[in-house]
Write a structure and sequence with these properties.
With about 120 residues, this protein is mainly β. Helices cover about 0% and strands about 55% of the residues. It contains no helices and eleven strands. Strands 2, 4, 5, 6, 9, 10 and 11 form a seven-stranded mixed beta sheet that branches.
């Protein structure tokens, strides 16, 4: 069974860089033709797709976050990582990683709460 687990700091100070890692088990992040995503949900708001990395290594970003985002992967550890620069309190929320296939985002991590505060 495919499992995803987010990890990273729960508290980040404004202007700093948020770094989250998603560890995948039960599948390889290089398996065709899956797409590995980051999604977040600010308090009281809906889900926001942030970006992702394709099985081939190509990356894609939400236009609204592209200037501050970077997604990378470590195939030896079967992990992919999100880095978000210059965070503000508006970046507070629950961050999820998810696998997307032909049928949609069928597998999600449990999510991790990130609070941006001084």
């Amino acid at each position: 069974q495919v499992q995803l687990q987010e990890s990273g700091p729960g508290l980040v100070k404004p202007s700093q860089t948020l770094s989250l890692t998603c560890t995948v088990s039960g599948d390889s992040i290089t398996t065709r033709y899956y797409y590995w995503n980051w999604i977040r949900q600010p308090p009281g708001k809906g889900l926001e797709w942030m970006g992702g990395v394709l099985y081939s290594g190509s990356t894609y970003y939400s236009p609204s976050l592209k200037s501050r985002s970077s997604i990378s992967r470590d195939t030896s550890k079967n992990q992919f990582t999100l880095r978000l620069n210059s965070v503000t309190p508006e970046d507070t929320g629950v961050y999820y990683c998810a696998r997307e296939g032909p049928g949609g985002m069928g597998y999600w991590g449990k999510g991790t709460l990130v609070t941006v505060s001084s």
